[in-house]
Design goal:
Layout: E1 2-6, H1 10-21, E2 25-29, H2 34-43, E3 48-50, H3 53-58, E4 62-65, H4 72-79, E5 86-89, H5 109-116, E6 121-124, H6 134-139, E7 148-153, H7 156-169, E8 172-175, H8 182-198
Parallel strand pairs: 1-2, 1-4, 2-3, 4-5, 5-6, 7-8
Antiparallel strand pairs: 6-7
Bound molecules: NADP nicotinamide-adenine-dinucleotide phosphate.
Length: 214
């Protein structure tokens, strides 16, 4: 796939690198320095290059949105026409201090995003994992048991594309349902961050759902 990375920071930089290593064609865009985008493209060791938001969006099959909530409007203003594009968003609707969600309970960042870019197809994914685990998951991707990763969206074809990318990174995709399920996955992402970054000797968070009665 041709993948435009909109936001090449902790999440976009790492996921873009792994998508390139998994064989996709990647354009890194949106960082404060051109040198950083060039370095990411060079170090991705795959088919990757640096570009503007417009270049990243124009020929892409999929766009990864990985910016702070406050930058979303700026990104889509510069990206241009995103009609028909699949947007996989890992962006969480956080306040300026990254301490709380500014959209929650009766809506979600993913749903608000879908309203802002109504001609695109939004899938919410990758926002429940800290960026620090991504390379480790990719390195272990051929093992028989893979960590699960939930995603949600309203368009089945777009969700299939997101699921393929989730598998390429090394996770087992778990379809959590329509985009409104992001109302529950976004707060869950904060729980993971809380445990990962604020716990003194943080627990390893693992969960398993058994199907009873089968
Ligand atoms: N980090 C995580 O573990 C994690 C996990 C789950 C979800 N998320 C969510 O994912 C989204 C991205 O998080 P992140 O940690 O990847 O953020 P980040 O490291 O700050 O990346 C954001 C990117 O946007 C760029 N940027 C910001 N302002 C800009 C401007 N004015 N002009 C050009 N580029 C600009 C940054 O440039 P520079 O590279 O120059 O700084 C950076 O490349 C957020 O919504 C976050 O809540 C993050």
């Amino acid at each position: 796939m041709r993948i435009g990375i909109l936001g090449s920071g902790l999440m976009g930089g790492k996921l873009g690198t792994l998508f390139a290593r998994a064989g996709h064609e990647v354009v890194f865009s949106y960082a404060r320095s051109q040198q950083k985008l060039n370095r990411l493209a060079r170090e991705a060791q795959g088919n990757a290059r640096a570009g503007t938001l417009g270049e990243a969006a124009r020929d892409a099959d999929v766009l990864l949105l990985a910016v702070h909530w406050s930058r979303v409007d700026d990104v889509f203003k510069q990206a241009g026409d995103v009609t028909g594009k699949v947007i996989v968003s890992c962006s969480l609707p956080m306040d300026a201090g990254n301490t709380k969600l500014v959209v929650a309970h009766t809506s979600s960042g993913a749903e608000e995003l879908a309203k802002r870019v109504p001609k695109a197809r939004v899938v919410s994914a990758f926002n429940t994992v800290p960026s620090e685990v991504l390379f480790g998951v990719f390195a272990a991707r051929r093992k028989s048991t893979r960590p699960s990763l939930v995603y949600c969206g309203d368009n089945s074809k777009s969700k299939g594309i997101a699921a393929a990318l989730i598998r390429d990174v090394g996770f087992e995709p778990v379809d959590a349902g329509p985009l409104r399920i992001a109302r529950y996955t976004e707060p869950f992402a904060l729980l993971v961050a809380q445990l990962a970054y604020e716990g003194k000797a943080g627990p390893e968070l693992a969960y398993r759902f058994e199907r009873f009665g089968k």
